[in-house]
Amino acid sequence: MAKQIFFWTLAFLITAGSAIYQRMTGPTYPRSGTVTLSGKSINYNLERSHSSSSNYLVEIETNDPETIGELYWRPFKSTGEFNFVKMTGDKILKAELPAREKLQKWQYYIRLQKGEEEINIPGDKGIIIRFKDDVPAWALFLHVIFMFGAMMLSTRTALEVFSKTANLYKLTIWTLVFLFIGGFPLGFAMNGYAFGEMWGGFPFGNDITDNKTLIAFIGWLIAFYMVKKNLMPRLFVALAAILMMIVYIIPHSV
Considering the entire predicted model, what is its pTM? Predict the structure, then answer.
């Protein structure tokens, strides 16, 4: 019993750590940092993903009424001139970045100025923000639960390899069930609501998120077959779990 508790706890911690890493290194995680203007540090936190149903209110706290700002933006991959608007406010500067249709993107940055000194945040090239339609809370909740569960079950099944009386068959089935439900019907729902297409992976496209789900599922299908036939089951379970981990920590599509 103690070993089982240890294995499940370890599987949960590994999965939670992987989820946090994937989230924080992904292309839609907000860009944060600190710049210096006239000897004063200014923190910023800029979104890289936003709902298409509303403008994005860009805010930056300067704590200096003498600092002024402008918000610049243009379509992603455009070579045209940037649109810009003057930011309003005193110690907190604000401006709205117009919403776009789902899947469309802006390239944007903030220019702060105090006296003769100015700085672009987060740099001259700016950052990219992608817009998506709103996803119902139920779909998002279930998708996260099943995908997190699939990763935890995958890790737990791999840890079972180290048990003398390994029960790989049942754990492999549960891993496949959670991965299938979370990645396909619920994944279809997520994509459909957010981007208007249920599947953008092979053979219809090259969407990273969809393709990595497909790769992980195929890996576990192979592992299930090898477990059922008792053909080096421990090896193939370990390989499927490693593949799942690699796939899991790859950031979602831009």
Answer: 0.84
